Amino acid sequence: MKFSTPKNKIFSAVQNVLNVVPTRTTLPVLSNMLVEVTDSKLKLAATDLDISMITTIPISATKKGSITIPARTFAEILRELPESEIEIEVTENRMELKVEHGNYRLSGIPSDEFPKLPTANLAKQIKIPGGELAEMIQKTVVAVSTDETRPALNGVLWQTSGKSMQMVATDGHRLAKISQKNNKLKGLHDDIIIPPKALNLLVKLLADSAKGGEEKEIGVIFGENNIIFNLDDSIIASRIIEGPYPNFEQVIPKDNDKKLIVNKDLLTSTIRRVSILANTLTHQIKFSFKKDTLELSSANFDLGGEAKESLVCDYTAEPMDIGYNASYVMDVLKQIDGDEVIFELGTPVSAAMIYSSEKKEGQECLYLLMPLRLAE
Amino acid sequence: MSFANVLNQEIPKKILSGALKKDMLPSAYLFYGGVGTGKWALALEVAKAINCENLQIPSKAGNENPACDQCLSCRKIEKLIHPDVKMIFPIPFASPKTQAERDKKQEAIEKFKKDKIQEPYTIVKFDKNVNIPVDEIREMQSKLYLKPFEGKRKVVIITEVENMHPSSANSLLKTLEEPPKDSHLILTSTDINRLLPTVVSRCQQIRFAKIPSFLIEKRLKERYQIPEEKASFYAKISNGSLGKALDFLQGEKENIRQDAILLIQTSIESNTGKIIDQVEKLQNRWDKNSILEMFEFLISLFRDVYLSLETFKTDKEQLLNYDIASEVVKLSERFKRQNKVEEALELVDRIRTDCKTKNVNLKLALLTLCLKLRDLSQNKPAHMNASASVML
Amino acid sequence: MTYLVMARKYRPQRFEEVVGQSHVTITLVNAIKANRISHAYLFAGPKGTGKTTVARILAKALNCKDGPTPEPCNQCDACNEIAIGRSLDVVEIDGASNNSVDDVRALRENIRYVPIKGKYKIYIIDEVHMLSDSAFNALLKTLEEPPAHAIFIFATTEPHQIPQTVLSRCQRFDFRRIPTNDLVKTIQTIAQKEKLEIDQDASYILARRADGSLRDILSLLDQVTAFGGEAEMPSSPRRVTKELVAQTLGLVDQEKLFEITDAISQKDASRGLSILNQLIDSGIDLPEFVNSLLQHFRDLLVSKVSHDSKILFDLSDTYIDRYKEKAKDFSETDILRMIKVVADLNLSLKRATDPRIFLELALMKLLKMESTVSLEDVLNKLEQLQACQREDLNLSNSSIDSESQNSSHKSLPPEDSATPKEKRGFVSNASDDEGRTKLNAPLEPAEKEKISLQGLKDRWNEVLGKIKKTKLSLWSLIKDGEIVSWEDDIITIEFHNGGAFHKKQAERKENLSLIQKALEEIYSQSFKLKFELNPEKTTSLGGQNNSTYHKDQLNLSEAAKKDPLIKTIMDTFEGEII
Fold it and tell me: For residues C166 and C131, is the Cβ–Cβ distance under 8 A?
């Protein structure tokens, strides 16, 4: 293997890939980075077995080949090298970097010991606007469960059904659901559960690239064992979680007949204050729904503290007291667009539906919140 | 190759190849049987067969060799680097508290893998107490719900599960019974009696028998070019364990055995001072594992003495230590009565078990053993709760 | 898709499908019918008896769309999701990995959320005994005042490790080991569904091995069918035969057991060993082999003592005849002793590092076992000896009397000598002691005689005689001792080299007082005793009364003591052999 490239070009690619190199691993080859040269392309790849990242840059190659080398050391050397053309050559499991005043040699592990990275089957690829995807992820990922006893809930369910797609997450106490019309799905019908780790990384990379200006489209491939996000010059692949996901449709109440409309910022700031004196374990706040008034109260017996505030709202149904986890409500409010938020209620022991009063074209976003049973 | 890598074990092989062929591989296996009988080796072969890229669906019943040994997947599994085949094994410093201990843990992991890659039958030994790392079990459980990375199915091999803390063992129960699909767990154990019955019950249990000595002999000659006579002796003395026979090739084991014989000789010479000297010497020379092996030799020696008292002057064929038959005869003249030899045997076995499973002062244990053996050789009763006195 | 093991595939989905636990399911069904639903259940019982299974059925019964109902529909989402462990309202927690107080706190926090779909929020906590003490304490609070929607189902194999305070707040159900017949019936039914044809014999072997656990027997069936059970034609059912099961599980062929028995009866050690080695090389399951050997000897015994061959169940007629024939080679006592050896082996195998060596040892023991005379013979011999001994005792007793009473040589009153005659060899100590006490009570305080060392030595045998009557084992221990000195009221008795054990035994408090009592009775004076070891002394037979019958009797009584049957009798009657 032999090629040459300007330093900054390879360094930024290496830095990108470094994102997924694990700090500690039982498989030594994982702390290495795969370096592979084909025709006129340099492929850099790393994986922690959950997420894999592959970046490709054009180079001028004189000899094909591949190797894996210690990723962090490689990156460190590149960082310190002055900006210039670097010539890289691999012979017998050793990589040599030739620079102006000398050279650096590094031992590697043969590339066939590196895990076999997923390949992108472009025929199955669908295109989704990056911003739209990031929004869907951000609005659902908050509700993902961290409880390992129910692994399916440890990820976001992504469903596609021909002309629309939706993402769902729940931990059994709350549920987030967002659906989006999309006419480029090529009729794809699939269900996969994606670990939040990959989604968060994707959102981060999308935000970085969005700074550059215009909105990009992202290729997505639903694989059997993984999902692949194709970002032009790099690919992120994530292993997916074994299903099936519980049937969530049934959870969504159909007969919630009481409606509350309230100013989002007002509610947010009030909850923030009242929750200071909430039980530190349950974060319980009592919502007392009265005619056109919402009363929030909390009590912390350990501190001997109590708080109560009222705010104006739009509510006409019969009065009710319901307990909610304040931090869950805050999580939801943070994701809701617009100035007004709507609560749809049934009974004090049934799920509340929360959504924005504003609706985006082709999008539907809904949160479900389970009440805490108030002490009798 | 493949299943042929595993010596003997025809019944386990037939059960496993049958399961592979009929596609009725259960989610959890427990391979149990003596040390060095091929549990690890066969577990690897099953992992290979599950993931082999050129799997040859066996046509007829019999001793099929399903995995190809050639494809990348097979080679990765042999090198223990397949991302979907996870190995968890007992090591020292299983729950490190300092950076130094973390490094030692890492070293231990590498040593284990290196030894096992070289020869799957190796009995990997550490001079510290070993445990199955709890964090590895936890990590494995959380990752098991991800779909395979590159293989067809995920395989988890946990060896010597008797070294697992009961709380980890209990935490495995759910995974064993209802693992995610596309995953298989293979547990191995040399002492099924020490496992939680709830763990055992959740696995299909496959028993590994001792390997007939002629097969061990053959393997030593063919793969290690050991001369006939030595090979035959190693095969016999290692009592059905290829792992133990291989230990002899390292040389150490011969010396341990010599010292074991010396130990008995010193013990029955009945000079307490000399005994203490000898114990001191042994204790300085050998680590805990070697001393445990020494006990094993003593057991085999007393077994021979017992037998020779019974079948006097019959064929050497029955002796394990046939190379030192005259020593055996000498000892049997010394001990005279079988019940004394039996007592001696039980004594060694008990002290060995205590040393292995409890925190026992080795020097005291050795000394106690020697003095009791002396009493027995002089026809005095040795009291059986001897080992209690060496407990710390 | 991974193969679904039969234990999961056929996991019962309704109360009435649960095997062998009707006492639990009927109670639960009735409680649901009466709408008496408890907030905490405890399911206790051995592995594989259906605790988790019943917990899930109960969860379905409560959260089914028609629930609470004793008959969950197994159709609705709730039922389906519970069955595969994916329900949002049924949380299955393993107590082992969530055993800390923090885990329980998190649970207490979560439990306040109302169920998302069903009527109840159900927590199934497996292996609940693994919770730490503080975790149990934290749990206690919730158990005292559970939210109306919360239900706990605890499952455990070790109920004794659960604090009483927790137990008292749960409705407890004890799951039983599933009876063999139920296991057999169940696998017969399942075999049918799997298109397997399983022999009656085969299913009994599996059931015995499964030890009351349904999961275990189905796992065994999985294994056996993977091993073999090919169908002759693709359409015909696969057969599971006794032979197939035996081969898979490494069970020993009955013939081999007979061969070993032959070797034992012919005392052919090398043959016995080589059969054993063959078996080990062929890969049999050693503990299982020991069990079969035990069973084999048991059948041998039964065919020896019983005239009704039906007691030998599980055996065909040809085998019964063989057993009857084979049993002729041994006496009952022989077989009992063989059983004892194998039963002991069974115990020591559990902790032995190398079972093979202990197995060999036990086989050697069986091989070298001297054929015993029948019990009747022993008893007859004992009786004869006793007659001799009585005469001897009468003599010595009379001399005691004559001296201690300072009167003429008269023999003892007849009661003392008459009693043993009626007792046929087994003397009850208690009554004898009483008799003696009464006899000795009226004795006048003896005149203080000057007792010489020689005098003590001379009458030592009288003392021994008395001891022999009260405690034979003590007599045999101290009879070899010799009085060497008599100073300051201390009698020193010396034992020969190797008598350390004798010395130690004699020094035991109760034995010491027996010897003292005997001395006192003769000399009407109390003595102190001291025992010493003399390494120079090698032989012990210094006493003049070691007549031939004495040795004879000792050997015989030693032999008799080893005999398990006599030992049992002795233990039962707290007797001594005299």
Answer: no
Strand partners, A86: A5
Does domain C255-367 sit in CATH 3.40.630.70? no
Is C1 part of the contact surface with chain A (CB cutoff 8 Å)? no
Q: Are β-strands B183-189 and B28-33 bridged in parallel, bridged antiparallel, or unpaired? A: parallel
β pairing state of A226-231 and A217-222: antiparallel
Sign of CA dihedral B232, B233, B234, B236: positive
Q: Rounded to a whole number, what is the distance in angstroms from the first to the last CA of chain B?
A: 49
Q: Which of A216-230, B347-361, C379-393 has the lowest mean pLDDT?
A: C379-393
Of A27, A154, A242, the CB nearest to B81: A27
Nearest to B156 by CA among B66, B38, B29: B29
- Full pLDDT tens readout for chain B, 392 residues: 478 888 889 889 988 988 888 888 999 999 999 899 999 999 999 999 999 888 765 544 444 567 888 899 999 999 999 999 999 999 999 889 999 999 999 999 999 999 999 999 999 988 788 899 988 998 999 899 999 999 999 999 999 999 998 888 988 998 998 888 889 999 999 988 889 989 999 999 999 988 998 999 999 999 999 898 889 888 888 888 999 999 888 878 888 888 888 888 888 876 788 888 888 888 888 888 888 888 888 888 888 888 887 665 555 667 788 888 888 888 888 887 777 888 888 888 888 888 877 778 888 888 888 888 888 887 665 554 444 444 33
Assess contact for C394 and C412: CB atoms under 8 A.
yes
Check: pTM over 0.95? Answer yes or no.
no
The fold adopted by the segment(s) C453-573 is GMP Synthetase; Chain A, domain 3 (3.30.300)
SS3 of residue A168 by DSSP: strand
- Which is nearest to C91 in space by CA: C69, C51, C118, C130? C118
Which residue, among A297, A274, A281, A276, has the nearest Cα to C141 in the 3D structure?
Answer: A281
C301: its two tokens: 């015994």
DSSP C369: P
- The sheet with strand A85-91 has its strands ordered as A60-63, A2-6, A85-91, A94-99, A102-107
Give exposure, A282-294, as e/b (b: 16+ Cβ within 10 Å): bbbbbbebeeeeb
d(CA B271, CA B374): 9
User: CA-based angle A284:A288:A290, to the nearest 5?
Assistant: 165
Are A139 and A176 in contact by the 8 Å Cβ rule? The answer is yes
Q: Which tokens hold the place of C554?
A: 């000792």
pLDDT band at A287; cut points 50, 70, 90:
very high
Whether B30 and B196 have beta carbons less than 8 Å apart is answered as no
Residues of chain B in contact with residue C11, where contact means CB-CB under 8 angstroms, are none
B vs C: CB pairs below 8 A? 166
Residue-range domain boundaries for chain C:
6-174, 180-249, 255-367, 453-573
> What CATH code would you report for B3-209?
3.40.50.300
Q: Do A148 and B148 touch (CB under 8 A)?
A: no
* DSSP code, position A375: P
CATH topology assigned to domain C6-174: Rossmann fold (3.40.50)
Residues of C in contact with A373 (CB under 8 A): 112-114, 147-149
**String of DSSP letters for B254-309:** HHHHHHHHHHHHHHHH--HHHHHHHHHHHHHH--HHHHHHHHHHHHHHHHHHHHHH
Q: Where are the domains of chain B?
A: 3-209, 251-390
Determine whether the interchain pair C114/A244 forms a contact, defined as Cβ–Cβ distance below 8 Å. no
Please state which CATH number belongs to domain B251-390: 1.20.272
**What CATH architecture applies to the domain C180-249?**
Orthogonal Bundle (1.10)
Distance from CA of A5 to the nearest CA of C (A): 47
Residue A323 φ then ψ, to 5°: -95, 140
